[in-house]
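Long-time lurker, first post. I've been practising inverse folding by hand and with some scripts of my own, and I keep getting stuck on stretches where the structure tokens seem ambiguous. Below is the full token string for one chain I'm working on. Before anyone asks, I'm not after the true native sequence, just a reasonable design that respects the backbone. If someone could post their per-position residues I'd love to compare against what I wrote down in my notebook.
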């Protein structure tokens, strides 16, 4: 028998707050929810709007459907914090320019109507096309969050294929029979699957509700909605490096965050005092972390997960609450939760990412709240360089500069004071770079004219950065000179001969015109710089061309990246060097954009499954009248 039509009631991003199924709480013990105002519609004190409670504007890229239900009776007892959690989140998101529909004490018909309105919104956004007839917006550009706080359960049993069933949520009302539960249940899995096909919007469903077992009698239904045996996480599928395929196909996706694992309860602890905002356990941490600039959903969830488990273990008795997720979208760990919708928010996201970065592709504080990360340690030269670059890009916007200072002064100091005495410059490989030369040649020329870097690039290398240029290749046949470079040639090198670079051994040296080398015989000699080309020791290189419309690599570039990067995904000793292009003219906006593009590419590669590899960045300044259009990647094996 087909599932009842109420199983089609799905919401884009559901956060169901910790609410114990079948737990009776006296209404007198809970404060009253506020009446309808400009934040939420309280359906307990306002005329029922039925299926027409919510409308969403397709021109708004940030949209949220928020539902908080306290008012239950019968088998489902009243709740205290669900409505307050929902209202607090609605108020927060309204302050961040989200188009919010917030419903308190919503019945099943209200939820179903909101689902239909949300589906229409996503369909309308999908219908907006670019010049090539493709959806104009990517999931990177949109956020649809649906938050539901109320009673939840996990339906036990299996379908005909032996697949476990799924999480259900319930509208307000009186629950006397099993039929009442079944008729008023909304299926999270059906919700997820219905909305997971949109290319422009990947809904985020945060389920912070009890998932205690419930079994419906066989005479009511022989089929119950199902949940995957294993979470369809992007990261689990990514060991074969599938991020390029996802971007290339522009497929659908979704993220579901559960406040607790199947079969367990979630806390509805009243944590606020008189006049304060009340919150349940999960929302207390989730609400704080979504404020963080630069943090991606996977990092937000990791932090919330640790905090909730710790809080649960401290409860008396411990209640076993343990969040989990079902992730099928690159949004989860490729882009920040907060959208970079303008220059200021783009700068804020890049600064937030820099604060968290350990400078090599990892995190300084992977399990810590962002507020603690801000208070941890001193800014490094790389972090200070990002601060200077991003602040320079928005210096004409006084309001944004003040916003930066307010958000990041705990780490960088007031007005960046903690970076004033730090040598903080990005690493430039070349100026007046043309695409007739290779990045390897540009890096070699830089080393030949910058003695302070010769040791790290031309010999054994600094221990933290694997060496790139170790040898040169003869362009055309040429003479190799003796160390004094005055006597006749000591050897003749044919075209294609590889020579080991040696600039620092006793008796050797290098200059703009001559390079100390050792041939296969090991003899020290010199070769004219003009006669050789640099050979990168990278095991693979990829030049990624970027689409101006999307700001992402082209399809052919993604295919090349997939082909070359896959061999390094299980090799954490690999270093990934990203060389980005900067337009000529020292434009602060150009430098900031190059840094953001390099940062985004790093995040995409990591989202594709790279875990533990070291990432380093440098830049080339293009010759006049050449526009930035690509990023050069080198995959260097560990030494």
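-- Answer (accepted) --
I ran through it position by position. Result:
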């Amino acid at each position: 028998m087909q599932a009842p039509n109420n199983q089609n009631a799905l919401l884009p991003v559901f956060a169901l707050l910790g609410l114990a199924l079948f737990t009776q709480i006296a209404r007198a013990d809970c404060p009253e929810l506020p009446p309808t105002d400009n934040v939420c519609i309280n359906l307990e004190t306002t005329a029922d709007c039925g299926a027409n409670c919510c409308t969403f504007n397709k021109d708004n890229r940030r949209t949220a459907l928020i539902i908080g239900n306290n008012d239950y009776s019968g088998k489902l007892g009243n709740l205290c914090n669900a409505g307050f959690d929902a209202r607090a989140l609605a108020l927060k998101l309204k302050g961040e320019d989200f188009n919010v529909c917030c419903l308190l004490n919503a019945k099943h018909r209200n939820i179903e109507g909101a689902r239909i309105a949300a589906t229409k919104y996503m369909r309308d956004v999908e219908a907006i096309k670019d010049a090539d007839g493709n959806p104009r917006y990517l999931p990177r550009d949109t956020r649809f969050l649906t938050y539901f706080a109320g009673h939840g359960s996990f339906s036990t049993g299996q379908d005909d294929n032996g697949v476990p069933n799924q999480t259900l949520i319930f509208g307000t009302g009186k629950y006397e029979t099993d039929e009442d539960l079944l008729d008023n249940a909304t299926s999270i899995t059906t919700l997820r699957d219905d909305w997971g096909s949109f290319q422009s919007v990947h809904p985020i469903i945060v389920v912070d509700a009890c998932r205690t077992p419930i079994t419906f009698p066989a005479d009511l239904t022989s089929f119950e909605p199902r949940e995957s045996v294993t979470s369809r996480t992007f990261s689990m599928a990514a060991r074969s490096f599938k991020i390029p395929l996802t971007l290339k196909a522009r497929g659908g996706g979704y993220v579901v965050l559960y406040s607790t694992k199947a079969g367990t309860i979630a806390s509805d602890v009243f944590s606020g005092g008189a006049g304060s905002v009340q919150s349940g356990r999960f929302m207390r941490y989730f609400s704080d972390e979504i404020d963080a600039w630069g943090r991606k959903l996977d990092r937000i969830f990791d932090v919330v997960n640790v905090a909730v488990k710790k809080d649960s273990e401290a409860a008396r008795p411990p209640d076993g609450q343990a969040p989990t997720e079902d992730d099928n979208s690159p949004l989860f760990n490729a882009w920040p939760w907060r959208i970079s919708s303008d220059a200021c928010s783009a700068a804020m996201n890049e600064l937030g990412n820099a604060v968290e970065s350990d400078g090599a592709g990892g995190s300084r504080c992977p399990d810590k709240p962002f507020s603690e990360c801000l208070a941890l340690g001193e800014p490094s030269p790389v972090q200070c360089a990002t601060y200077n670059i991003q602040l320079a890009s928005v210096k004409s916007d006084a309001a944004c500069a003040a916003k930066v200072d307010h958000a990041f002064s705990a780490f960088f100091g007031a007005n960046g004071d903690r970076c004033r005495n730090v040598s903080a410059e990005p690493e430039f490989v070349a100026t007046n770079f043309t695409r007739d030369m290779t990045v390897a040649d540009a890096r070699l020329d830089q080393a030949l004219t910058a003695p302070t870097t010769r040791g790290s690039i031309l010999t054994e290398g600094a221990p933290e950065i694997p060496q790139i240029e170790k040898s040169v290749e003869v362009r055309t046949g040429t003479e190799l000179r003796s160390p004094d470079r005055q006597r006749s040639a000591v050897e003749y090198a044919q075209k294609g001969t590889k020579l080991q670079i040696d600039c620092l051994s006793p008796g050797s040296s290098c200059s703009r015109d001559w390079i100390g080398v050792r041939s296969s015989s090991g003899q020290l000699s010199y070769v004219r710089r003009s006669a050789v080309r640099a050979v990168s020791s990278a095991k693979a290189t990829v030049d990624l061309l970027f689409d101006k419309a999307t700001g992402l690599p082209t399809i052919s570039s993604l295919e090349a990246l997939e082909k070359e990067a896959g061999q390094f995904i299980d090799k954490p000793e690999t270093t990934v060097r990203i060389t980005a292009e900067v337009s000529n003219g020292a434009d602060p906006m150009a430098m900031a954009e190059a840094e953001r593009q390099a940062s985004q590419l790093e995040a995409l590669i990591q989202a594709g499954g790279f875990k533990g590899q070291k990432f380093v960045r440098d830049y080339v300044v293009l010759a006049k009248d050449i526009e930035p259009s690509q990023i050069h990647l080198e995959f260097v094996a560990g030494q």
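A couple of notes from the structure itself: The chain has four domains: 5-334, 343-419, 436-536, 540-636. The first helix runs from residue 82 to 94. Happy to go over any region you disagree with.
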